[in-house]
Design goal:
- The structure is a single chain.
- The chain has 16 helices and 20 strands.
- It is of the alpha+beta class.
- The protein has two domains: 133 residues, OB fold (Dihydrolipoamide Acetyltransferase, E2P) (Beta Barrel); 257 residues, BirA Bifunctional Protein, domain 2, CATH 3.30.930.10.
- Helix 8 crosses helix 10, helix 8 packs across helix 16 and helix 9 packs parallel to helix 15.
- It is elongated and about 90 Å long.
- It binds one RNA strand through helix 1, strand 1, strand 2, strand 3 and strand 6.
RNA sequence: GCGCCGCUAGCUCAAUUGGCAGAGCAACUGACUCUUAAUCAGUAGGUUGAUGGUUCGAUUCCAUCGCGGCGCACCA
């Protein structure tokens, strides 16, 4: 049982207190992080007094001297603690340390006989006694022993993953740099960042099923937003001509290596521009962000080499389908399109129109093949209720593009529809579709329609999947690798009365109320 | 949601045709003042994911469930 290991640590903790040592002190004055200390290490040898602190990752006691490995965000360094030098009392403290403890050491840089950079300690301080053991991973000459690589556990106990795997930390540094670069790119071009509601009474701006929640005081059904689109367009109406939001949206759909229930979406709206200019900007932005975040345009992702330096071709969805299948999706008999999909075992709902069929064939036969960055343009009207009709083929198509890289969609954009009469008609069409069984059809948002009726400037609008961009730039193949705490199934599925609550406050009452009727009316009235 | 694979000590993994559940590391005790996967000697550590079934006997065979991974479907 694990508690036996913990008992040993708790006993040492008690002993430390007996010795008059506070195992949880208030801080430590560090002179160098490990990476800084290693820069110009030899010049400092036997000269400077240094102070380092971090997590104890290895202990090699040899009687009256002990070697240890200390890890901080800058890396690991060896410590040499001699009884002669730190004193009898400190050496007893040392014997009460475990792997995983946080310690601080004052000392002098030295090299061992084998040349390893080392801090010879003159003083030892306990900074935090760890009472829960962490997985022990050993390494020699780049070879790792007893690697801790249970993927699920790494997501579930991400703090351990971060301690044990520097490359995990790097992914989140890439993520931070990516987000910062996106903001910088847009800020530099006069875009204003805004924040709009996540809790909404009407969800819209995308085709997806929402999460449902409830406001107690108002006794109102609320949704978590599935897109940022509609409020940002109201900003356009209000005269914020360049506006963006970079935030979390929520879609109540399947989870796999490309999908998490909540994900980070960048949307920006650009007045007086159309989707072609938006493509120019997105292409430039992707390159700028890649250079800022990882310093290169040549990437490897899911086993494919991706070259962001290549011009992003702009190919119409219909042309791509024709090229890959021989079907002319705009002119061939609809039955031929249906037959193709049946042949590929794609379920086709009865209400599907030519546009839906075109999109379905594209998804089936083309999408996965678009490895290098490609703009797919000019989508069917029926699947794009917020896009402006195509200036050349207004009856069938809209002005829209999706950016594909590595066979995966990264972005979605239109020349935004600003004809209020048409917009209202399209919402009504969506409502009809909903009646026919399309549960992703968009609900009518009256506030949004009224804003559009006031007059929204012609504009391009772009949505970009930030998690996927981070995946591409960090080389991660799954979205869970770029989320610190991805959504997972609850750990203690089976016995409800199991006394196994242990860590991560798996409180039994925190179940998502799937049914409406299950709302507890009597919860803590007026806690505010 | 469907299919395939997996789940054994804190970690990484063994266990012949169904026959007393093991090793290394970590832990504990002892030795060791330049080690580095430290070494040496000893000790302890398990409801084999859960429940049920077949059997004299189940880690092993069967069923159901849980969790995870991969693939498919839906989406971004």
């Amino acid at each position: 049982m694990r508690s036996e290991l913990m008992e040993a640590r708790l006993a040492k903790l008690a002993r430390l207190r007996e010795l008059g040592i506070n195992p949880y002190p208030y801080g430590f004055h560090r002179t160098h992080t490990v990476d800084r200390l290693l820069e110009g290490f030899d010049a400092r040898m036997e000269q400077e007094a240094v102070a380092v602190c971090g997590r104890l990752m290895a202990l090699r006691p040899m009687g009256k001297a002990t070697f240890a490995q200390l890890q901080d965000p800058g890396g690991r360094i060896q410590l040499y603690l001699k009884k002669d030098e730190i004193g009898e009392a400190a050496y007893e403290v040392l014997s009460l340390l475990d792997l995983g403890d946080l310690i601080g050491v004052h000392g002098v840089p030295m090299r061992t006989r084998t040349g390893e950079a080392t801090v010879r300690a003159t003083r030892l301080e306990v900074l935090c006694k760890s009472i829960r053991p962490l997985p022990v991973v050993k390494e020699k000459d780049g070879q790792v022993f007893d690697a801790w690589e249970d993927t699920g556990e790494r997501y579930r106990r991400r703090h351990l993953d971060l301690i044990l795997h520097p490359q995990t930390r790097r992914v989140f540094e890439v993520r931070a740099h990516t987000v910062r670069a996106l903001r910088a790119f847009l800020d530099d071009r006069g875009f204003l960042e805004v924040e709009t509601p996540i809790l909404v009474a009407i969800y819209g701006g995308a085709s997806a099923r929402p999460f449902v929640t409830h406001h107690n005081t108002l006794d109102q059904k609320l949704y978590l937003r599935i897109a940022e689109e509609l409020p940002l367009k109201r900003c356009l109406v209000g005269g914020i001509e360049r506006v963006y939001e970079l935030g979390r949206v929520f879609r109540n759909e399947g989870m796999d290596r490309g999908h998490n229930p909540e994900f980070t979406l960048l949307e920006f709206y650009w007045a007086w521009a159309d989707y072609r200019e938006a493509m120019d900007l997105v292409e430039e932005m992707v390159r700028a962000v890649a250079l800022a975040a990882v310093g290169t345009l040549e990437l490897e992702w899911r086993g494919e080499r991706i070259d962001l330096a290549l011009p992003f071709p702009r190919l119409s969805m219909a042309d791509l389908v024709r090229e890959h299948t021989g079907i002319d999706p705009l002119h061939d008999d609809e039955e031929r399109l249906r037959a193709f999909l049946r042949g590929h075992h794609v379920a086709i709902p009865a209400w599907a129109s030519r546009g839906h069929l075109l999109e379905a064939i594209f998804d089936e036969a083309v999408q996965a093949k678009l490895l290098q960055p490609t703009f797919v343009i000019d989508h069917p009207r029926e699947v794009s209720p917020l896009a402006k009709v195509h200036r050349d083929q207004p009856d069938l198509l809209v002005e829209r593009f999706e950016l594909f890289i590595g066979g995966v969609e990264f972005g979605n954009a239109f020349s935004e529809l600003n004809d209020p009469v048409d917009q209202r008609r399209r919402f009504e069409d969506q409502a009809r579709r909903r009646d026919l069984g399309d549960d992703e059809a968009q609900a009518q948002d009256e506030e949004f329609l009224q804003a559009i009726e006031t007059g929204m400037p012609p504009a391009a609008g772009v949505g970009l999947g930030v998690d996927r961009l981070v995946m591409l730039l960090s080389g991660a193949s799954g979205i869970r690798d770029v989320l610190l705490f991805p959504h997972l199934r609850p750990e203690d599925g089976a016995s409800p009365e199991s006394v196994e609550l242990e860590e991560e406050g798996a409180s039994p009452e925190s179940v998502a109320p799937e049914e409406e009727g299950a709302r507890p009316e009597s919860v803590e009235p007026g806690k505010d």
